[in-house]
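User: For a teaching handout, I'd like to show students what a predicted protein-ligand complex looks like in token form. I'll give you the sequence and the SMILES for zinc ion. Please answer with just the structure.
Assistant: Understood, here is the input followed by the structure.
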Amino acid sequence: MPLVNPLPMLLAAREGRYAIGAFNVVDYMTIEAVVRAAEERRAPVIVQTSSGTIKRFGVKAIARMAADIAGPSPAQVALHLDHGTDRAALREAIVSGYTSVMIDASKHPFEENIRRTKDVVEEAHARGLSVEGEIGVVAGVEDDIVVRRDRAIYTTPEEAIAFQERTGVDFLAAAIGTAHGFYKTEPKLDIDTLAAIRERTRFPLVIHGGTGLAPDVVRRLVAAGGSKFNLSTQIKQTYIESLHGYIEGHREECDILKVLKHAHDRLKVMIGEYIALLGGEGKA
Ligand SMILES: [Zn+2]
């Protein structure tokens, strides 16, 4: 079916206390792996791209690929821009077939974050897209955004409520101690604050930095109110490792499509397992 706005699926997830997997894709094959996993698990999914991926392929090319793959599929697939910091790139995504965008102005002071977010919300809503905002600061490395662990700022419920009211943002990334990239030490997660924000609001909350969290921690984050769960680093790692593994064992193989098919299958299995862990199976 055509790409869908992710807001209805996220609101249903919020009500049902499960989470929608938002998977960072890097090419045609990774988009296909996400969509096939969604079909197999009968789950709604979000395909999302970082600024690095759109710089590499262009927003229009990604939007076309995603629409081509989702079109003939029965799966509900949304196409989301992750961590949009560049206003021109955000505009391009809004007019090129993305169904939601994240405006990440979290490095700016609160009032400036509100101003920049509201500006994107107005443009996106006028075209039928939904918008994710961020307050507080998620630690780690996300393309060109680098935040040291000790500089991460946790979100408070009061800020989350004020921010949503003043910007009209549809769903919100709350900084509660998860980080981008791999965890070098056990993360200190503020699951109570996540639950407190959920109790006092009506909009879906987003967990960034999903890679490397123990399954039990993921279940607790979802139970506490995380309705969108972002997974990026794990996808890149599974992709690279499956290529390494296959090539090691098949040094003579010269059919690149066979090599890529192997990586695709491994990715599809891993993504399907995350969908099940998030409770999204059978929710489409
Ligand atoms: Zn993120």
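For the handout, you might add this sentence: The pocket of zinc ion is lined by residues 83, 138, 142, 180, 208, 230 (CB under 6 Å).
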